[in-house]
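pls ignore typos typing on phone
carboxymethyl coenzyme *A + seq
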Amino acid sequence: MSDKATLEINGKKYEFPIVIGSENEVAIDIKNLRGDTGGVITIDPGYKNTGSCESAITFLDGEKGILRYRGYSIEELAEKADFLEVAYLLIFGELPTQDELYQFHSDIKKHSVVDDDVKKILDAFPKSAHPMGVLASLTSALTAFNPSSVNVDSEEEMYNAIVRILGKFPILVAWTMRKKHGMPLDYGSSSLGYVENILHMMFKRPNEDYTQNKILINALDKLLILHADHEQNCSTSTVRITGSSHAGLFVSLSAGISALWGPLHGGANQAVLEMLEAIKEDGGDTKKYMAKAKDKDDPFRLMGFGHRVYKNFDPRAKIIKAAADEVLSDLGVDDPILDIAKGLEKEALEDQYFVDRKLYPNVDFYSGIIYRAMGIPTEMFTVMFALGRLPGWISQWREMRMRKEPIGRPRQLYTGETYRPFKDISKR
Ligand code: CMC
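k done
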């Protein structure tokens, strides 16, 4: 392949370097486009063709359905690793040794408390508040309790900020749920594993001991791993661009949580379950909803289907579908929603509209069914996604700051009025 791309504008030719990624992905480096051409820019709404950065964290091939964190396949990680190992891998680039993992977990545990005044902030939210709004606010509020900014040139300060947020975030997640359901707030126990402690903090009842269930621990571990990173998606790009102004880690994460909330992104897991419930209530007629999804005059979309990058089966959806079967049978749950989901999937995979547009089930299609079987309320599903995505956001923020990337600031093509003189209010 040539190492240059040529662009011709008004008879003049400009050359731009071609850059090759480690998996032979090809990109045209247009860093000098505006300067060389005297102001020409590219336009790409939704950034469908635009690489915003170089990154060594996650590799995704949407055509082949491949997802790897730091070179390790998602299938192997979901089967053999635990969430904390994956978090370490994403953030620091290598799987931890036993000692490194022990140290990492010990350091996280030291920070697994939040200032008790956070409870006062939580108290001010109405019970009806959506947990994602509460989580974004509390994550941002952590900055007020830990005001010093991180010196990104100091490995030690960077590490401290990372273990601090990994320690505190699960508390915010659990408290957000407990507050909504009128449960007293709990700090969990430092004698437990990271994921065990999350379950303990979420579900321990004030008048009972909490008995750990291996099936739930494994299921949550797997779900968190599958959500842990997904390269430059909407929320991760938000975290990177927020941090590119040198805003702190916690507020950058809070911006990412807000971006994740939308139903086209992380909010889809809640939307999927609500859709499946609606289909069930409506008599289980999946064909009716298939027709709605295909009708261009109907805004309804089949939630949990389609993906900007995957034009093949989302590899995470395959793993989750198998896990859903396993977890429901292990827990002895018979959920008619799972049958509706499977029916819908079968119809969509055979339907020309979905085939032509390469629309396959994504990660969110089956995850809600597992969360529901675990006893997690529907409005908490996107919060669980945020919990899983935390190490991905942290690793992307860290990479962006360590590579000293410039502030993110896209250009635009102005299509508004040209100059016009000011009109006095009496003449408008
Ligand atoms: N149901 C029906 N039609 C769909 C769907 C769907 N779920 N998704 C895409 N299409 C159609 C769309 O109408 C368009 O048709 P046409 O070419 O005739 O205009 C075509 O497929 C391409 O869709 P698009 O909206 O241009 O694709 P996109 O890459 O901009 O959007 C998406 C990707 C995920 C936002 C979209 O597929 C969607 O809205 N899916 C439902 C929401 C969802 O499940 N989101 C979770 C994504 S995975 C979790 C995450 O990482 O965020």
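Residues 58 and 230 are 7 Å apart (CA to CA). Residues 155-180 form the longest helix (26 residues). more later
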